[in-house]
Write a structure and sequence with these properties.
With about 300 residues, chain A is mainly α. Chain A is built from 13 helices and 2 strands, in the order H-E-E-H-H-H-H-H-H-H-H-H-H-H-H. A two-stranded antiparallel ribbon of chain A has the order 1-2. Chain B is globular.
Chain lengths: ~300, ~425
């Protein structure tokens, strides 16, 4: 009697691996075609003169050299973006945490409040920008209407908000805080995970709300704060849409952010090579800041008791 | 179970890939054409009829057309041209034909015309304006044909004129007349501007437009920036001083109110006069506006003023992806010529609401309509902006920053013009560095 042929474990493993690759192939194909290829292509294009009509012409490091040594707007846009990140990220963290602390209470209708604060994140950024333009409009906007008693009291001119180079960046940052509900949800999720026993023990020891917040809640929330910090930096360096809609990069280039300049390089100047070089410079900047931030991770983030 | 899933995956992939193939209508040679009349657009049916009529008349060729909205079209065509997947025929901007011709992505229309043995749809160059044909020329040959034109002119509200006892005879012809008349229409209430007579920064006005009327320009014949002469300063000062009775904040608030309310200041009766293009006529027509208005040439400087306005027409282009057979090339040119015939240009003018480039076609189209006749007359004085390779958007993103700073008073006129000139020079230097 012939014995049925038994496949070895090795053969079976190979078959399973093959099946795994086949099933993962749509995703792998997607990441190669839509992810890896454009990334590598843009790296090559950054060393070329490419007007999107003629074939790219290799020019070495010239795009990078020009950007660093003979492009005033490059530095201006980088400064604007750095300013935005430096103010908007910490402010966004602060507002998000405060909202989460406020909404981490057991009161009636809390889910409605939470939804209301999250709602701006699902509103179209175009609609949101137009709405805020109305609110911040210096002559007939509601914000200056509300502030008019203060202006009268101190005998000062109304703030020009996005119409003045000195206040435009801050205006866009303040507007961005409207979407702090997005990070709030993450903070809330982590707050829910903090064991109640810790608060009970603290209460037994006589701790008040402030002490519980600073000694228990915030330290245990550091992983999510850190996550939002990193995401905020990455997102902050890509700021574009609000300036494009609200200010066209003005006044006096005060809201002409790095991504906006990159967009203009590509769309207005047809300088795809230069735009790609800018994209890679941005990647390196974000990478360096992220690596630096990750080094802080061990020092500032609570990852549980060791041993 | 795994086998079933695997079989399903293979079938799904195969079906997906096969479905990517195009429809095969018949065995005629297929010509692809991209236009700006997508499904749902009011002009879609007319465009479809024009194409169907061509297809019905052909035994050898068949046009497969795709319509995109105006706003989507540019990204699509630019990417397609760059990746050599452009349609056989498409529209683009007339003022930068030279850049595409230089890059070798366009067919030489002069060569095709010379070699054309077909007796149908001949292109009559005499029916197209020289000021447009010049922009379609590269090294002495045509690489595109003017397809449509835009013209800018003064729209004035006759109801408001009536209010002040004025008639069309009072329509301003010079800058000083414009200034005097405009002030009569200004209405201010509690510090906020409710109505303006005119503003030289509103509507379709541009600094280069005012410069052209004064015999000046941004660049000299060698495309070197030339912005800091006293004459340039004077034109800018005229713009700034025009509504100097109001603060910049008042004017900005007035302008933003229009924008935020989605109001065209002229059709919203917030300005008595405005420089706009032929599109405003279409807007007023489609909105069934009962406003009593007229159009006239843009007023010119009192001394040595030049009657000129900025055009920004489309070109009709045949894209060379390097893979057309002789039959495809012949068929494409046949359809290309068809689109430039008098009858089709007239139909397109009617359905798209554009001013087409064919002179007789447009003369037929506007006959009996005084507003359209006046608009068409201005096309003879319309000029496209020059293509500057080192600053293709010289009139837009490059210039607007400085223009706004000058208007806001952040820079003096001379400082702003000097800064703009320095900016162009830096761009030129960088362009030369990467193209040397």
């Amino acid at each position: 009697m012939k014995q049925p042929k038994k496949s070895s474990i090795k053969t079976q493993l190979k078959r399973e691996n093959l099946l795994g690759y086949i099933f993962a192939s749509p995703w792998l194909l997607g990441i190669i075609v839509l992810g890896a290829f454009p990334i590598l292509a843009s790296f090559y294009i950054s060393f070329t003169q490419y007007d999107m009509v003629s074939a790219p012409d290799f020019i070495g490091f010239k795009n990078y050299i020009i950007l660093f040594t003979n492009d005033d707007i490059f530095w201006k846009s980088l400064w604007n973006t750095a300013y935005h990140v430096a103010i908007a990220v910490p402010l966004g963290l602060l507002v998000g945490i405060c909202l989460a602390l406020l909404l981490n209470n057991k009161i009636k209708g809390m889910s409605i409040y939470r939804t209301l604060f999250y709602l701006p994140n699902v509103v179209s950024i175009v609609a949101m920008s137009l709405l805020w333009m109305w609110l911040f409009q210096p002559s007939f906007g509601i914000i200056n209407e509300l502030l008019s008693p203060i202006y009268d009291l101190f005998n000062m001119d109304p703030i020009l908000w996005y119409q003045s180079a000195s206040t435009s960046k801050i205006t866009l940052i303040l507007m961005g805080l409207w979407t702090a509900g997005g990070s709030m949800v993450i903070y809330l999720a982590q707050m829910q995970d903090i064991p109640v026993s810790l608060y009970e023990s603290a209460e037994v020891d006589g701790a008040n709300w402030l002490q519980k917040t600073f000694k228990i809640t915030l330290p245990l929330m550091t992983p999510s704060i850190f996550f939002n910090f990193i995401m905020g930096i990455i997102g902050g360096f890509q700021v574009f849409t609000i300036a494009y809609i609200m200010t066209n990069g003005g006044p006096s280039l005060s809201t002409y952010y790095y991504a906006y300049y990159m967009f203009d390089k590509m769309m207005s100047d047809n300088a795809m090579g230069m735009a790609s070089a800018m994209a890679w410079i941005l990647l390196v900047i974000v990478l360096i800041i992220t690596i630096f931030a990750l080094r802080l991770n061990k020092k500032v983030v609570y990852l549980g008791d060791e041993g | 179970m795994k086998r079933i899933l695997l079989t399903f995956l293979i079938i799904f992939t195969a079906v997906s890939l096969f479905s990517c193939g195009g429809d095969v209508e018949d065995d005629r040679v297929e010509i692809t054409f991209w236009h700006m009349s997508p499904v749902g657009d009011p002009s879609y049916s007319s465009m479809k009829t024009l194409i169907n009529n061509f297809n019905d008349s052909q035994d050898l060729y068949f046009v497969k057309a795709t319509g995109f909205s105006f706003w989507d079209y540019w990204d699509k065509i630019n990417v397609a041209v760059a990746s050599r997947t452009a349609p056989n025929i498409g529209l683009s901007t007339l003022d930068d034909v030279v850049s595409r011709a230089e890059s070798g992505v366009l067919y030489n229309i002069s060569d095709l015309m010379a070699a054309d043995t077909s007796t149908t749809y001949a292109i009559d160059l005499a029916e197209f304006r020289t000021n447009q044909l010049d922009f379609a020329e590269y090294e002495g040959d045509l690489y595109a044909m003017p397809f449509s034109s835009t013209t800018r002119l003064l729209f004035y509200n006759l109801d408001m004129f009536d209010e002040l006892g004025l008639t069309e005879a009072d329509v301003p012809e010079t800058w000083s007349e414009l200034e005097t008349l405009a002030k009569m229409f200004d209405v201010v209430n509690d510090g906020s501007v409710e109505r303006l007579g005119f503003d030289p920064t509103y509507g379709d006005t541009t600094y280069h437009g005012w410069l052209w009327q004064s015999g000046l320009d941004f660049f000299d014949d060698d495309l070197m920036p030339n912005l800091t002469t006293q004459a340039h300063v004077d034109v800018m000062n005229w713009i700034l001083d025009f509504n100097s009775d109001f603060t910049r904040a008042q004017l900005t608030a007035f302008g933003e109110a229009n924008t935020m309310l989605g109001l065209d200041p002229f059709s919203g009766e917030r300005v008595a006069m405005i420089v706009s293009n032929d599109g405003l006529y279409q807007t007023l027509k489609t909105s069934n506006s009962d406003m009593n208005y007229g159009v006239a040439p843009i007023p010119i400087p009192d001394e040595n003023g030049i009657r000129v306005n900025w055009s920004s027409g489309f070109s009709l282009e045949m894209y060379d992806n390097g893979n057309l057979t002789e039959a495809e090339e012949t068929g494409t040119f046949e359809f290309y010529k068809y689109l430039l015939t008098e009858e089709i240009q007239e139909d397109l003018g009617e359905s798209l609401g554009w001013l087409m480039s064919h002179i007789s076609a447009m003369e037929n189209y506007v006959a009996g309509n005084p507003i359209l006749e006046a608009i068409l007359e201005e096309v003879d004085y319309a000029v496209d902006k020059v293509y500057v390779p080192y600053a293709p958007a010289w009139h837009a993103s490059d210039w607007q920053t400085y223009y706004t700073q000058i208007q806001d008073g952040d820079l003096t006129v001379l400082e702003g013009l000097q800064a703009a000139e320095d900016h162009y020079l830096q761009k030129l230097e960088n362009y030369n560095t990467i193209n040397e």
